[in-house]
Write a structure and sequence with these properties.
The protein has 202 residues and is α+β, with helices and mostly antiparallel strands. Helix content is 23%, strand content 9%. The N and C termini lie far apart (54 Å).
Length: 202
């Protein structure tokens, strides 16, 4: 017998009464930090481990290749998984309407391999594109939720291009040089991970 997954999906999307800390990073990069996001984190992790994962180059024909393994959620499931978090963000930003553009889960580790077809998985990407007619109509925020139980410290990073920390500050020349960068490195063979700091215009 096939059972509906609605119950488990609603359960894993339940969040705690979150308290956010505001930080302003160098370059005027604002971030909000909250701990213990999910009400049932172990069930969330168990659910995510049951999904199928691929390298992004195997299912995404865009010019972005993320490192590690990815499960990409379909848009019709965004509201079910993200509704409670969206409600929290709407209150913080004082808006009545907020939609989810993209949602995926990412599995990375210190032993993950490089994409052997090119070098793009070494480089950061942008989550909001002011030159995209769909995304540029409204502001965007990015939410990263860490579920790692590793004893190693978890880090994330923010990058700048030609001295600009926010892609919304890019002009057409900045965007074109970044596109040219990705085009030049799309099929470049790279045999080890490296720090992108001070690499070309990063």
């Amino acid at each position: 017998m096939i059972n509906s997954s609605t119950k488990i999906w609603k359960e894993i999307s339940e969040v705690n009464n979150l308290e956010f800390e505001y930080h302003l990073l160098p370059g005027n990069v604002p971030i909000l930090i909250a701990n213990n996001v999910f009400l049932y984190p172990d069930k969330v992790q168990e659910f995510l481990e049951s999904l199928d994962y691929w390298e992004t180059k195997d299912f995404d024909d865009s010019d972005i290749v993320r490192p590690g393994m990815t499960h990409q959620f379909t848009p019709n499931l965004f509201s079910m998984l993200g509704h409670q978090l969206t409600q929290k963000f709407k209150k913080i930003f004082g808006v009545n309407d907020m939609s989810i553009i993209d949602m995926y889960t990412q599995a990375t580790s210190g032993t993950m391999g490089l994409d052997v077809t090119g070098g793009l998985c070494c480089y950061p990407h942008m989550d909001s594109d002011p030159f995209d007619s769909i995304e540029s109509e409204r502001p965007c925020i990015v939410a990263n939720i860490n579920l790692s139980k590793s004893s190693d410290p978890v880090t994330t990073g923010f990058w700048s291009w030609r001295g600009k920390n926010n892609v919304l500050d890019f002009n057409r020349e900045d965007k074109n040089t970044l596109i040219n960068f990705y085009d030049r490195h799309e099929e470049q063979s790279i045999d080890k991970w490296f720090q992108v700091h001070d690499y070309e215009d990063f």
